[in-house]
Amino acid sequence: MAYRTLISVAELHALLAAGEEVLILDCEFELGAPDKGREAYLGGHLPGARYAHLDDDLAAPSDGTNGRHPLPSPVAFAAWLRRQGLKQGQQVVACDSSGGAWAARAWWLLNWVGHDVVAVLDGGKQAWAQAGLPAETGPAGPVRPGDFAAQPPLVAAPVSAAEVLANIEGAAAQVLDARDPLRFRGDPNPIDPVAGHIPGARNRFFRDNLGPDGRFRPAAELAEAFLRLLDGKPAVLSCGSGVTACHNALAMAHAGLSGARLYPGSWSEWIADPARPVETGAC
Question: Order of strands across the sheet with 91-95?
């Protein structure tokens, strides 16, 4: 059985117990402290998991105008996946301990390079530990390179800043901003040198996709929430740097809603050009 959005701890454990080859990507990360994710990985991770660093592996270098986490090139990302041992058609599971905030980026990127058998571990590393399942420490061991090659994207084409700007007047698409409500509203914060949001955007804080137990809310509940915000329009997904916006993409896919487009540069790219308009206040 292939998993394409979410996978439970029990389902992943069953795959591994049956001897299935699963590539597990530990995407642990902390904004403002980019070394802490790797340190946490070394301190404990799912057996066989390999570490995926947001800055180094799941993004390209920023040039100061294209956002904090630009998309890597498909060729470079596919080569990195091969070095992790990925084979064509192999199940991938991405995980973290932040409700899928970083793992969802890996999920979106894998779909972007044409690999659809990828899921995020529902409940994350905490759920694995709570189930009493084993963990490993230290660096990943050597692995034989896989044969994965990038295929046509399985997600809608990303949106450019120019397209987002052009959309403001006609509002043919609805921008959904995954940042927390305070940042969206425009309260001063240490992350955004310019506070606020893209004019016309609506706020869908990515953590609202999760229930109190840290697992994703039921598909029907998610569908209702997103459809209410979209009001019949296609979705453009934004956040601070194109990362947690992928969490909304995952939630929509889990809810059976297709066609959402990612704005990879997001707010950090948007505010790099002072000519681009900024709006403040809740919506």
Answer: 6-7, 118-121, 91-95, 22-26, 50-51
